Amino acid sequence: MLRAVRIKLLPTHEQEQLFWKSAGAARWAYNYYLGLSEETYEAHVKDSSLPKSVSEGVVRKHINNELKPTTHNWLKEVGSNVMKQAVKDADTARKRWFSGLAEKPKYKSKRKTKPSFYVNYESLSRTKDGFRGEKIGEVKTSKHLPKLKKGAKYSNPRISYDGKAWYLSVGYEVQPKSVELTGETIGVDVGIKSLAVTSVGQVYENVNKTKEVRRLKKKLRREQRKLSCKTEANIKAYGKKRKPIWKRPLRECKNIQKQNKVVQAVHRRLTNIRTNHLHQTSCEIVKTKPSQIVMENLNVKGMMKNRHLSRAIAEQSWYEFKRQVRYKSELYGIAFAEADMRYPSSKKCSCCGKIKRDLKLKDRVYKCTCGFVLDRDLNAAINLAHYRI
User: Fold this and answer.
1) Which residues of the chain have pLDDT under 70?
2) % helix / strand / coil in the chain, to the nearest 5?
3) What are the pLDDT digits (tens) for 344-360?
4) Domain ranges of the chain
5) Which of 167, 210, 295, 351 stands 20 to 30 A from 57 (CA)?
6) Contacts of 65 (CB under 8 A, 6+ apart)
7) 52 Cβ partners below 8 Å, 6+ apart?
8) What is the pLDDT of residues 55-79, one digit of tens each?
9) Model-level pTM?
């Protein structure tokens, strides 16, 4: 199976400058393809004899053969695969939009988009202190890259920046571990009150209710208010469509840029805490070594329309939690199953099997007419453990 790892980089000043140039080139190539695709389609609407779309191969050749030698010489400073892969990524995003798997791709903003770029997997090689890449030389890392078999290559290597440090993400092949399983089936019910409840009675807390996360969320609101006040103080007037007219360009306002970094640092800290909690919880569930794990297939997109619960649902990251449980189960040879979205795990009595149609979200204790009384989430987890495809 394919597994991914994310490793912190320790680049020199020159390498870090090259990273920024590569990220900028990737962003430009992505936006260039999207713009050219939209222009092609608009021309097709006016004249149906013209092509409806443009091939990503044609765009890459146009950039390499016409733009790069003349008006865009700065593309020569970075690896050629940085631009090529960015165009391919934009083409993939449009195809996913056409097939209904994703929304329409948006242009990447220099201020809002996470800086990242592709590293040629064929030239990427592991070294004693880090790795060697195309045009970036040997880069030191905080820990060693995973060893590969002879002739194997790292999959989809990319370098990204999270606001504080640069990271290398690579995929590599691993063999599933051979472990002795217990033969049990565990149901895992996710929720808002607690992250997860298993059918054996184990409850995993909601990390967003801990003291540290509450403190950071309060700090985030305070720092965002400071940023808003500084930004409003720089507005001279409003133009068309309430677009602000700045007294000074934002890039020249050092106090605003400093405050942006403070807000970004708090966001980074919150993300790291939540991701770490998901990894710890998923590992603890999988390392009980059951023969099968069953989780719900929830309509998260529909649940997010509830304005009272949308923030709490987003903070729990149910999809990421399920993804981690799935791939870690595969690593240990544990079967992973998803219950159908229409399966009434919460409304069904785990004792007699009767379905309680009038169960409300505020009812935290399940009470059946047969006299069975149990915590609502634990009852749902037991029903998931009994689920059969």
Assistant:
1) 389
2) 45, 20, 35
3) 999 999 999 899 988 88
4) 2-166, 185-204+287-385
5) 167
6) none
7) 40, 41, 44
8) 999 999 999 999 999 999 999 999 9
9) 0.89
